[in-house]
Amino acid sequence: MLAKSFSKLPLECGTDEAGRGCLAGPVTAAAVILPKNFRNKIINDSKQLNALSRNKLQKIIREKAVCYSVQHIYMEEIDEINILNASIRAMHKCIENLNPVPEFIIVDGNRFKNYKEVPHECIIKGDGKFLSIAAASILAKTYRDEFMTRIHEEYPIYNWKQNKGYPTIEHREAIKKYGVTKYHRKSFKLLPEQLELSL
Known about the structure:
Blueprint: E1 12-18, E2 27-33, H1 51-64, E3 67-73, H2 75-81, H3 83-96, E4 104-108, E5 120-123, H4 131-154, H5 160-163, H6 169-178, H7 193-197
Parallel strand pairs: 1-4, 4-5
Antiparallel strand pairs: 1-2, 2-3
């Protein structure tokens, strides 16, 4: 069972993002405040769960959370401000939407910028240590997966329903063959050097 709180303050929010290493689609963040008495033995880092469990847990988190927010930052903005800044901006936008306002923020990873006057702590592998960060990782992942499944209908040749925009061999082969779409991040290295040389 993951730890319930880092700060011991009742309004502690956990935040995390999904899709940072993708070649296509948005980076998606979530922020969650869970009630003090919240318990769940299954919630964990979203990468440790299968899609079925994540989708079931998404519903539980949405129903039981004190409050939550999920935000996408899209490709054009990622290309403009870079992926790290886009990830932090997405987390900030989520926190801004929380009501009540959190008293403390715990962040998955080691990079964050101060959000107003609210104290925060960066926790490496926090999504496997604290319930609220794990809950945020599940919301970010499931909402982003839903987005990628929707845009798959528009461009099925890239198989985003399956790869969710990550740099799989199949995704890179499709980029090599068909070029890029409006959903691709133009600032990312979309093809490895050896493929670019053969174009």
